[in-house]
Amino acid sequence: MASILGGIVNMKDKLAGKEISLTDAAVEKLRRFEAQLDPARPEAGPYAPRIIGYGEMSTVFSFDDVDLKGLAFKRMAVFRSESEILPYEENFKQYSRLLNEIGVFTPDYGVLRLNRHHHPVLYIFQRMVDPLRIGPAYLRATDRESALDLFQRVLLGFDRVFSYNADHDDLSLGFDGQMSNWAWQDERLFYLDTSTPLMRRDGVEQLDPELFLRICPSYLVWVIRLFFLKDVLNRYYDLRLVIIDLIANLYKEKKIDLIDPFIEAANGFLRERYADLKPIRRKEVDAYYKEDAWIWRIFLAFRKLERFVKTKIQRTEYELILPEKVER
Ligand SMILES: Nc1ncnc2c1ncn2[C@@H]1O[C@H](COP(=O)(O)OP(=O)(O)OP(=O)(O)O)[C@@H](O)[C@H]1O
Ligand SMILES: [Mg+2]
Q: Residue 115 contacts by C-beta under 8 Å, 6 or more apart in sequence?
């Protein structure tokens, strides 16, 4: 018995993502990249950088350079001091470790702290996966049966996270389950989005919510703090909302034909594993999508206005990198 169990544990160890570090050459190059980075023209910097993803809190780069290639770098520039960035880094490591322990595997990962104009910047890096194997691209290219197969695997991932939460009173993991955060590669499922390590210890959010407000248009900060922040964070701890969020995003990903089959699969999963939760209805998915799309469009418009005022009128630097156009 012991040896069989040992086998399973070893197998899991092999699949799990682990912490890795950068070579000295890579660190030196990133340092130079950061020093020369112009947030308005990020791809003009050295080492052939390419933006491969925009997040709410981060911009994701890859580089076509011998020392940097093969890794995805998530650049986070919201920090103002060491005392903000250090706990964030620790949370990131703990979150990544925990996910891998419970069987939600990430690519190998690591962090690097740099400085920009006396502000610390965090680079969270991961081994790169093939962009065509990331959720939305994969769904676009595959048939309905494989799409459903992937969704079933993702639901299993949700089950690992939310049964961990149910079993641990002292610690719960927040989770952003949408398709763009998963990759299906080499017959393995990878979870990519660990750069916002949401965790509640004894009910207290470990991430400083003020960091989220930094990415908000300054005109809106007080409204968001008052009305939205709690809801936005809560939804990552609610399995039903995590699933609705994933399915509602199929609108944005132009895979509307998958919405009903995914709802059916999700309800089968809920019936079997979470019988106390109400089944998901199409109406809820549609309403969620409308609200979400509206909020983000306004949000981005305000951020662009703010960038315009800062760079063109006040002639100061706008330190965030913004996507040009987000389709929702
Ligand atoms: N390891 C990776 N390999 C290839 N592409 C990646 C990798 N990690 C991220 N990406 C690309 O960048 C996008 C955004 O990355 P990710 O989901 O990790 O961060 P995010 O959405 O910015 O998260 P947050 O807003 O929570 O910081 C992904 O959807 C994917 O397209
Ligand atoms: Mg993401």
A: 34, 121
